[in-house]
Amino acid sequence: MIKPLIYNTAILLLLLSPLSLSFHIPSSSKNLKTQSQSSDLRSATSDLPTPVHDEVQKANSFLTDDAMERAEAGSKEEKIKLSKDVTQTWTDIHAYAAAIREGKTSWEDISQDDMDYRLKWVGLLHRRKRTPGKFMMRLKVPNGIVTSSQMRFYSKSVSEFDEEIGVVDITTRQNIQLRGVTVEAASRIIEGLHELNQTSFHSALDNVRNVVGSPLAGISDTEVIDTRKLCTEVNDLIIRDASGAFGNPRFANLPRKFNIAISGGDDDFSHCNINDLGFHAVIAEDGSKGFNLDVGGYMSIKRVAESVPLNLWIPENSVVKLCDAVLTVFRDEGERKNRQKSRLMWLVEQYGVEDFTARILKEAGEGGFRERQPHVLRKDYVRQELLGVHPQNSTHSRVGLHIPTGRLTRYSCAALADLADKYSDGEIRLTVDQNVIIPNVDNDDLKQLEIEVDAIENVDFTAGLIEGNVVSCTGAQFCGLALVETKANARRVSKRLEELVEVPKAVRMHWTGCPNSCGQAQCGDIGLMGAPARKEIDGKKVAVPGVNIFVGGKIGESPFLALEPRIKGIPLDGEEIVTVLAELLVSDFGGVMR
Ligand SMILES: *[C@@H]1O[C@H](CO)[C@@H](O)[C@H](O)[C@H]1NC(C)=O
Ligand SMILES: *[C@@H]1O[C@H](CO)[C@@H](O)[C@H](O)[C@H]1NC(C)=O
Ligand code: SF4
């Protein structure tokens, strides 16, 4: 449900608290004087577009006294969240954008705390280091399902930015990131998203991230539970307030980010083992449907933790309740001083698994919860392929298209939207492997679909077993934390490997630019993580960008994280990396040199 927008109240709020917009006023003459600032902003808000709440309830008001005390004594990020409530950004962004559009200010005048931190509450991540003044805008795409109108809107949104940086990425959370976004464009994009029943709110920093579900929900005959409805409901718990408007102050000040994955069947396409909450669909002994729960999985620079199982089974219709309970406990009790220790796993360990279970059950109340239910994998189990053409029933098929490193251009977005309108009733599904699935295609149309896909640049109907299974984080092109460029290298190297080696089955290569491991190197059959390397140039060893190589990560029913690299410090530039990887493909993955 889309709430009617109530303009006046938000304008009133701004009038009442004009200083809530925290412009930082440097002394240089081009900038606004403090005196005129608030009145300028007031007139700038005359066309204020999208206030989302009739009354902005504060995120900080939901913290318990204890959590508040710990936040006050907490990390730099905690102090930023306390000094101005993050929910304020839901209206600030429109005022900032309007003021810039009217030439009254520029992004440099916005305080660094707002630019680089608080605007993350509307999904804006300032790429100060690589593209100053430009944002990556992260959306929410529950279960990774987008409509053709949304896809067309992404294309249109980035089309006003330089072609080089105005791109759209599919992420490892089955999500969309728009790149090259300016402050002045951001508010219009948010409005457009909201009109399309989608939002960018709550998608970065200390928020619950995109809720991942099965890309084959509703179209796989081995599915136990259709994850679409649940992902949407859990997403609504996070992004909407009690009235259904976008932005939920209840969960807007968490101690740290939080990941939820819901797997609808045996393939675990959602990767429960690396999420804070991982729901595995399991039919209970009496035949009712629900989920065994794993908790605490995450990846970071300091620690990579595989999730641990709780002795808990949750009926399908209590999933939202359980998420609500865990988020409440996490919000109120999670660590707020040392950010390296504020992910859920640390709270689980502080309690101990049993006491943690008891604590969240107490919070949740009645919900038909039971002990973990036994789960035996079918004898004939084979993980379903996502890429390529696969029959859904006697007349229709799903078609998995390869998107190299998940990078879409304005043109390929628009082309995908057209394809979806023509062949799948406007539906496009995103996968955590950064590809797309066009579902429900009439078998009679497959040939024509293939011809049309072949005409689209950067979208492949068929892809090699190496190239098709590359996953890559953002890397140095945009990410300030990157030690190396990833997407371009991933494409170059996988193309070379495809020419050199023939492999008998898919090899998943995961590229990640730094130990934060957004590209999940530890999950890959082969993982490549940005790292220092040395190379001999003119008889001298010099430092060059390189990678450490992890081998043997597993996903699916028996997940495994390769925690230590097998090979270290291979330079990215040149042929050595290709040779090393080709050898690995032969020694460990049954590859044969062509
Ligand atoms: C918008 O999304 C919500 C779920 O978030 C759904 O319940 C509602 O029906 C959708 N509205 C429209 C108009 O599609
Ligand atoms: C096959 O799936 C399509 C797409 O979901 C559906 O429209 C059609 O009715 C199904 N056909 C049969 C025979 O079940
Ligand atoms: S893994 Fe590192 S380089 Fe890659 S996107 Fe994440 S933070 Fe940036």
UniProtKB/TrEMBL annotation:
Domain Nitrite/sulphite reductase 4Fe-4S: 206-364, 469-582
EC nos: 1.7.7.1
Signal peptide residues on this chain, from the entry's feature table: 1-22
Entry's Gene Ontology molecular function annotations: 4 iron, 4 sulfur cluster binding; ferredoxin-nitrite reductase activity; heme binding; metal ion binding
Biased composition (Polar residues): 30-48
UniProt keyword Transport, yes or no: no
Catalytic activity: 6 oxidized [2Fe-2S]-[ferredoxin] + NH4(+) + 2 H2O = nitrite + 6 reduced [2Fe-2S]-[ferredoxin] + 8 H(+)
Pfam family, one: NIR_SIR_ferr
InterPro entries from the UniProt entry: NIR_SIR_4Fe-4S (IPR051329), NiRdtase/SiRdtase_haem-b_fer (IPR005117), Nit/Sulf_reduc_fer-like_dom_sf (IPR036136), NO2/SO3_Rdtase_4Fe4S_dom (IPR006067), NO2/SO3_Rdtase_4Fe4S_sf (IPR045854), NO2/SO3_Rdtase_FeS/sirohaem_BS (IPR006066)
Annotated pathway: Nitrogen metabolism; nitrate reduction (assimilation)
Listed cofactors: siroheme
Keywords: 4Fe-4S, Heme, Iron, Iron-sulfur, Metal-binding, Oxidoreductase, Signal
Domain Nitrite/Sulfite reductase ferredoxin-like, first and last residues per copy: 128-195, 390-453
Record region (Disordered): 29-51
Family as reported in the entry's similarity comment: Belongs to the nitrite and sulfite reductase 4Fe-4S domain family.
Name of protein: Ferredoxin--nitrite reductase, chloroplastic
Organism: Triparma laevis f. inornata
